[in-house]
Amino acid sequence: MYDKKKFLILGGVIACIVFLLVLWNFSSSGNRLAKEPEGDITAFYYDYGSYFGGYYTYELVRRYDGTVAFTATGGNGVDLDIYTYVDSSCLDELTEIVNESRIYTWNGFNKSDNGLMDGYGFSLAAGYSDGRILSAHGYGKEPSSYNEGHKALTAFFEKLCDNYDVSFAQENPGVIGNIEYFIYTYKTPECGKKTYYLTKNKTGSVEFEVSGEGLETKKTVDISVVQKLENLISEKEIYKWDGFDEEKNYSVEDQGFSLLAGYENNRWIMSSGAEKYPEGYESGHQALVEFFEALCE
Length: 297
Known about the structure:
By secondary structure, this protein is α+β, with helices and mostly antiparallel strands. It has helices at 4-31, 89-100, 146-162, 166-171, 224-235, 281-296, and strands spanning 41-50, 54-62, 68-75, 81-86, 110-112, 121-128, 133-139, 179-188, 192-200, 206-212, 215-221, 256-263, 268-273.
């Protein structure tokens, strides 16, 4: 029903671009760090490597509910694919590392050797609680204290990876991270077809929309609605519907459902059915409908 591979690739590219652009644009507005920062890190992005040698990408983000999401991915031969939560103290430890290793002195570094065909490169972006930004980028060139700082950062992130709870990810596929958008459509002989849309915009606002036969609702809702939906998906184990796709095998026209949820960490929940439904569908469907209908009031 959906081209999952294309969604994943596109989502990954967009997520990385948005994250870096937001921090780089903000840093150019007079909020760049000139000395050791006094605030705490709330978001951190670090990637390094080369095309043929492989590359690593790490990201730590404090969510609006206070939890901290950690992602670690690799490419070009590096086998790394971690999406999980970590203790919030990790950001405190990272803040100390940035200060003690004087990584903040990298701020503003942006040099490249464009003559290299397969050079080593890195990018770093950190957001602080006081609104200031630390950002640095290099390709074939590095700041003077780079080796010491890089060694400290990789040791920190490798420790997080070593402590990764694989069973948590296996039991909660698609649950890690914040929902960026959610689309749920269902059709019954009694009610006809109805679709609910929930979309988080770049500004942080959340748009809610309902469409159906004789129905049309569109409004802005509080960001807390997204957290409540994430909790509902976890409590009702709706994430376990992912991959269920029986709609294409049946010709039923007056009943069925489809669900598409996109998360900020490029994970997805995709499911559809028309005559057969995933386990727990009735309970999950009822909870979703009650949740969205309450938003209509």
